[in-house]
Design brief:
Blueprint lengths: L1 H18 L2 E7 L7 H6 L4 H6 L2 E7 L3 H7 L5 H18 L8 E5 L9 H9 L4 E5 L23 H8 L2 E4 L2 H7 L31 E5 L12 H8 L5 E6 L10 E5 L5 H5 L4 E4 L5 H4 L4 H8 L4 E3 L5 H4 L7 E2 L3 H13 L1 H18 L2 H12 L1
Parallel strand pairs: 1-2, 1-3, 3-4, 4-5, 6-7, 6-9, 7-8, 9-10, 10-11
Helix pairs in contact: 4-5, 12-15
């Protein structure tokens, strides 16, 4: 009898504790560990949430098979079937929402179409959700591969997703100002870097041949177009490599050009090969909404970052202190030339940038903000 009572008193409290865990559902467009916006907005926090008594579930709109097909040429029938399968999965998910204490929606519940699921979640099922976004997603932006389908995106739905949300977590002040037109509960959470488990290497300041580098998808590679003539001029005077890390190879004709196909397994090792990181942008409303993540990646590895003075870049960098804000072609050329010839300057600026990331843009600096919102 004593053993039965002892077993009951030990196990029962544990059951009560497990039942008291808050259940949180994360809804996102893409499969886990595939899209940078998800990986660096919330996925890298999931283990920390679990360690702090949150029961986490994750539901992407696209499965891995549809995700790979969607951004390939052709395959219209397969894309259509994949999207239909995704909508069915979303519809069935609605019947399970009763068991969750809170819902977190990153960007959109469905990859295309009006905000049907957000409406059902908030207005019909009366569930509270946090709405998170890190780009000016109310503005048209699409790849040429799926240009004919871009009208199905229903960009106008973003304002309703914001309006119906219990709380909104944009990635910067520009995005927050837009959110505040439709919702008073807004907390800025920057796109962050995991300096402990992921971005934990450092560039080599003693390398004999410096590397000017850029990373990004093929859809944003166009920002490099204006930089190509500058690189070509610098090639005549200096020995360096111009490294592009992307999902598709560039078509630029430069003797210094090197290409590494982006891979998650080698992402940080490849980035650490860069001596000088570049992030050129155009002065437009889409760029205003970007969260400066490319520059933050460079900075986290001690790489001096050269960034266009657009949007949040002006808040991340103090010119010539923890990075460089460069605008005109001549400024880009002069700054690159100075850094190519001065390894001590590269180290000084790179270390200052790294400290900025640790203090303001790291997972450690922001994880409890997320945790408090979810709890």
């Amino acid at each position: 009898m004593f053993r039965v009572i002892l077993k009951f008193t030990i196990i029962f409290p544990l059951k009560i504790k497990s039942l008291s865990k808050k259940k949180i559902l994360f809804i996102a467009p893409y499969p886990h560990n595939e899209a940078p916006s998800q990986r660096f907005r919330f996925e890298q926090y999931l283990d920390y949430f679990k360690e702090n008594e949150l029961d986490i579930s994750f539901s992407p709109f696209l499965d891995a098979k549809t995700w790979k097909t969607l951004y390939s040429e052709g395959n219209v029938a397969k894309k259509g079937m994949g999207i239909m399968r995704s909508f069915l999965k979303r519809f069935l998910l609605l019947f399970t929402l009763y068991k969750y204490n809170k819902i977190f929606i990153h960007r959109e519940a469905a990859h295309i179409g009006p905000p049907i699921f957000e409406f059902l979640i908030a207005k019909v099922l009366r569930k509270k959700y946090i709405y998170d976004y890190d780009d000016a997603t109310w503005l048209p932006n699409y790849s040429e591969t799926n240009a004919s389908f871009h009208r199905l995106k229903a960009y106008w739905k973003v304002r309703y997703c914001i309006k119906w949300a219990h709380h909104v977590t944009p990635g910067n002040e520009y995005l927050a100002n837009y959110a505040k037109k439709y919702n008073e509960k807004v907390t800025i959470i920057p796109t962050t870097i995991d300096t402990i488990n992921h971005h934990n290497l450092e560039t080599d300041y003693e390398v004999s041949k410096p590397v000017i580098g850029w990373t990004g998808t093929h859809t944003t590679m166009r920002y490099l177009d204006f930089l190509v003539p500058i690189i070509s001029e610098l090639e005549k005077k200096f020995e360096f490599d111009f490294l592009i890390i992307s999902n598709e190879a560039p078509t630029y004709h430069l003797k210094s050009l090197k290409f590494i196909k982006w891979a998650h397994a080698t992402e940080i090792q490849d980035l650490a090969k860069i001596s000088i990181g570049v992030m050129p942008l155009e002065q437009d409303v889409w760029s205003e909404g970007k969260c400066g993540f490319k520059g933050l990646q460079y900075m986290a590895l001690g790489i001096p970052a050269l960034m266009s003075p657009v949007g949040v870049n002006n808040q991340i960098l103090e010119d010539k202190v923890n990075g460089f804000l460069v605008k005109t072609p001549q400024e880009w050329k002069d700054c690159l030339e100075e850094l190519l010839t001065n390894k001590e300057l590269r180290k000084k600026i790179g270390q200052a940038g790294k400290q900025t990331v640790i203090n303001r843009y790291s997972v450690l600096a922001n994880r409890d903000v997320y945790l408090n919102l979810l709890k």
